[in-house]
Every structure is written in C-alpha cells, then in structure tokens.
Amino acid sequence: MSNVRRGLILGLLAVVVGVVVRVRGKGEVEPATGTWRELQGPDFR
Amino acid sequence: MSTVALVGAGAVGVRAARQLVDTPGLGHLKIAARDAPAARRLARAVGAEPVPLAHVLDGEVHAVAVAVPGPAGVAIIRRAVEAGIPSASCADDDASIRGLLELGPAAFDRQVMVVAGCGLAPGLTDVLARHAADGLDAPDEVHVARVGVAGPSCRTTLRAAVRAPSREWRDGTWHVPERRGPQLVWFPEPVAARECTPVDLGVEVVRGALPEVRDITMRAESPGRNDGRARLGIGRGPAVDEFGGARVEVWGWHGGVRTSIVYGVIERPAIAAGTTLAVSAARLSGLIASIGLRVDLGGVRSAGATFEAPTFLAELARRGVKVAAFEGAQR
Fold first, then answer.
1. Is the link from the previous residue into B188 a cis peptide, with omega within 30 of 0?
2. Cα–Cα distance for residue pair B285/B116, rounded to 1 Å
3. What is the C-alpha end-to-end distance of chain A, expressed in Å?
C-alpha cells in the first residue's frame, strides 16, 4: 500500500513539475500584433 | 550564351534545373548526380545533357550549382575552384559549410567566387537579413528561424542539428545557450506559429553576410518526430516538401530609436532552395545582369555578402518566391 501511495505522490510531483516547466518555458514569447505585407517593386530599390 | 553544370538530382536539384532552363541566355545545362539514372531522367525532363559526375566540369562551364550535401558536395566545389569555375552550393549542414569556408584562401588566390549556403536557410535568409540590416542605421541583432525540409537528406541534416549542441553568436563571440528549449516563432500564414529549437546551421554564413552584427541566433522546427507512428499508419508522418518557410528578424537603431525589421517567406522549401541556388549559379555564370554584385573578388562568401539584396529578391519574386514584411507592433 505504501508503494502505491509513494507512486501516486511521485506521479503527482512529476505532473506539477511538468506544468511549471511548461508554463515557464512559454515566458519568452513576445506578443505581437500586425500583418504581413508582400514586398513589391519599391521595396526592391 | 552560358553553360551551367548542375550537380544533384534530388528535391532541390530538380527545382534548380527547372529554374535554370527558364533563365534567358542559358545556352547549355549539364546535369550530373551520384544517382546517375536520376540525373538522366532529370536531364531528359528538362532538355539538358546528362553527364557522368567525374566529367561534369570538362569542357566549357561558366558556373556550377551544387545540390549535394556533405563531403561529396565540398569535393565538387574544390574541383571547381581548382578549375577556376565559380560555384554555388545549397548545403546547409555545419560540416559542409566549414569545408566550403576552408576553401576561401584557394578561391581568393585563383580569383574564383564561391557562394556557400544558397538554399532557404542559410541562403535566402542571409539575403533577407542583409536587406533588413541595410534599412537600419546600426543593426546589431539577427534572429533567423526556419520550418520545413526540402527532401530526405535535408530532413536528416535538420534532425541531427536539432539534437546536437548548438552555438550562437552573442556579444561578438561564440556562446552555447543554457536553455535549448523550443520557442514559439510566428511565420506568415499558413505556417503561422511553430516551436523552433536553437540549431547551429549557417550561423557562420550569416556572420559573413552581416559582419557588423553582434548577436546571431538560428532556430528550426524539429522535423519528422513521428516517423514510427507513420509506419504504423498513425499520424501525419514526416513532413517533406510541405509548405515551409523562414523568418528573419533584425534589430538595431534607426533615427535614434531602437526598432526591428522582420521578413518572412512561405514556400515549399525545395522550391525556395532550388530557386535561390539556380539564380545564384546563373548570376555567377554571367546571366541575370540585373542582379548587382556586392563584391567581384574571389573567395567563399554567403549569398547575402555576394549579391545586392534588392535585385536578388526582385528576381526571386519574379520567379514566384515572394517575401513579406511584418508590419505591426512587437512589445
């Protein structure tokens, strides 16, 4: 029984660590708003 | 009338051959490959002359386009340098690029121009980076990202690069990033947001195109993680020659303000790489005179350091490889 409990605790701990790493890993993303415009003739001068 | 030799009949070689035969002024195209039957099939399809790989540089050849990765591609470029023939290579693996750069002194001594990294990235991205940098007073950071692969050998190279330790150019020196986790990068639609991992593919080439820049990073999406599932009929399988793209972000000072210029390109990677390689080789052979040269000295350089970016990009756009600029606000 103690092995089962130990396994559950370890599993829960792994999930918590995974969530923390995942969330913190997204921290560097820089939000941006705007559109893409195709380069035309004047852009090539 | 110019004669161009094309080496390689894979995904990029096929597209480069089609672009070369569509180039006004091309008199003759020779095609050779390690896979001789593939070279014969390609030559027959585009109306070129198939030649054995050992004799591809025989006779009058004005430029060589090499679409062969690894040491075999470097060996062909070495032969071209010794024969005094300008050449362009689309190899993107680190070993090939190092091998090509080592040919620099020999190419300079013989006054032969060699363009290293004439694919999507490195290649088109170096030209875009140069173009963006020229729009700033003092560029100091370049961040390049790519997604998609041209063919099986390109996928192998990219998978190895994603797994290998990567280097970045930070504060004017080589630096190994502590965190190698993927980062979301936004490309134009339909590719949109992808997770890209730091890779050491062509950072050295970008340095050649932008020697004034102190920070250079290169990222790529890991390709084909689901090979095993695809063999079992589950999942999409490895993406080869699906839509891919590249994004180039250059930061610097302009008018006393810190700002960035971002360019993106969405295209099938084999088409983008093949067109970049074909246009580079054609220009080295004396064709497409509308493309200006930044230098006319012998040596091994990147596409961005060799060609005038605006005219090169205009020629690519005329051939259907279109570039977009991001217009908006980054916070």
1. no
2. 16
3. 75
**CB-count burial class (<10 Å; 0-12, 13-18, 19+) for B303:** buried
Cβ contact (<8 Å) for A33 and B328?
A: yes
**Is B322's Cβ below 8 Å from some Cβ in A?**
yes
Planar angle of CA B243, B247, B250, nearest 5 degrees:
170
Residue B264 in contact with partner chain A when CB distance is under 8 A: yes
As a whole number of angstroms, the distance between CA B244 and CA B62 comes to 32
Query: Quick check: bond before B24 cis, omega within 30?
Result: no
Under DSSP, is residue B21 helix (H, G, I), strand (E, B) or coil?
helix
Query: Which residue bears the tokens 């040919």?
Result: B103
Partner-chain residue, chosen from A28, A29, A34, that has the shortest CB–CB distance to B328: A34
Strand-pairing partners, residue B247, are B145, B264
Quote the ipTM score. 0.77
Question: Which of A30, A37, A41 comes nearest B325 by C-beta?
Answer: A37
Kindly state whether A33 is in contact with chain B, defined as any CB-CB distance less than 8 angstroms: yes
Cβ contact, residue pair B329, A33, below 8 Å: yes
* pLDDT 10s digits, A19-45: 877 766 555 555 567 889 988 877 777
Highest mean pLDDT among B17-21, B200-204, B227-231: B17-21
- What is the separation of C-alpha A8 from the centre of its chain, rounded to a whole number of angstroms? 25
Round to whole Å and give the CA distance between B285 and B149: 28
3-state class of A42 per DSSP?
Answer: helix
Helix axes B124-134, B309-318, angle to 10 degrees: 130
> Is A32–B329 a contact, with Cβ atoms under 8 angstroms apart?
yes
Q: Chain B within 8 Å of A1 (Cβ-Cβ)?
A: no
Q: In angstroms, rounded to a whole number, what is the distance separating the alpha carbons of residues B155 and B319?
A: 25
How does residue B146 score in pLDDT terms, banded at 50, 70 and 90?
A: very high
Chain-chain contact of B189 with A36 (C-beta, under 8 angstroms): yes
Beta bridge partners of B50: B31
Among the partner-chain residues A34, A38, A43, the one whose CB lies closest to the CB of B329 is A34
Q: Which residue of A has its CA nearest to B328?
A: A34
DSSP helix/strand/coil, A12: helix
